[in-house]
Amino acid sequence: MEVDFELGAAGATVYVPGRSTRAAKSDLGRPETIEDTAEYVTAAGGTEIAVQCDHADAHQVRNLINRITAEQNGRLDILVNDVWGGDALVHWAPLWQHPLKDGLSLLHRAVDIHLIISHFALPLMTARRAGLVVEVTDGDEATNALFPDGYRGSPFFDLAKTSVIRLARIQAAELRKHGVAAVALTPGFLRSEAVLEHLGVTEHTWRDGIGKDPHFAYSETPTFLGRAVVTLATDPEVLSKTGQSLATWDLAEEYDFTDTDGSQPHWERCFRHTLAPQLDTIVGELTQDPVQ
Fold first, then answer.
1. Taking the complete model, does pTM exceed 0.85, yes or no?
2. Which of 115, 140, 213, 248 is the most buried (most CB within 10 A)?
3. Which DSSP symbol is given to 150?
């Protein structure tokens, strides 16, 4: 939602496709809806268009792109691929013990859907020889390399997150000659609605969650990610970054933007200095848990 909000605040027309509407929720059961997002962004000064769409359905995605083509005269400046929905499907278990159905479903949601969307959306960008694709992931190459053996402890989760980085690089290689940039972008410890609920806090009281998890002190709002996307999209030299895996904290320092409270959270510093030395133990404890 906050990525859309920041794009709207910058004056963009933003299409918000999704399954959760006020009339019907997705299987994730989240209370947020595409209509809520549309109102939020319109209030910020942008133009938000909510479209009910299941991104796993190629026919629905094709219809969405056809609608954008018709309504925007074929113009698509920014594509933010941020579909995930895999939290309940992650198991900290070896490949042979990980429930196969859950693992394959996770990959479908977190990787296949990104491919489906790009397949239909990219022709709009290549035709105009301009645009930016942002593949949102979890962890850049630098932080992922800090894990023992470079492995994040769950086979399908690891594949999902690293595959999105690779997908950005693949698209960059194919799109560069068309003047279109593609990057992978990771936030840090994200204060999403689900994380706030998990810690029993709100955005206004989020610091109360530090007592439950001291690393939460280094967290960032989704707005920080939105500002990173807007900054990249408005950089006339963004093509120089194509194919890279980027992080909100590095971009904040480079472009001098802040989170909502005026700070510049830097998750990598916390991760490198406090979590990385414990990763062998942390991953070991997680992978010893029985598969639920």
1. yes
2. 248
3. G
Angle formed by the axes of helices 222-233 and 248-255, to 10°? 60
Q: Is the predicted pLDDT of residue 182 greater than 50, yes or no?
A: yes
Residue 2 has pLDDT above 70, yes or no: no
Domain ranges of the chain: 53-287
Q: Which CATH number fits domain 53-287: 3.40.50.300, 3.40.190.10, 3.40.50.720, 3.30.470.20?
A: 3.40.50.720
DSSP per position, 65-88: HHHHHHHTTT---EEEE-----GG
- For residue 264, the SS3 value is coil
Find, among 252, 272, 273, 254, the residue nearest to 262 by Cα.
252
| Angle at alpha carbon of residue 91, lines to 88 and 97, rounded to 5° | 135
Q: Are 221 and 283 in contact (CB under 8 A)?
A: no
52: β partners? 18
* CA distances, 278 to each of 68, 141, 159, 286 (Å): 47, 19, 22, 12
Integer-rounded Cα Rg, in Å, for the chain is: 19
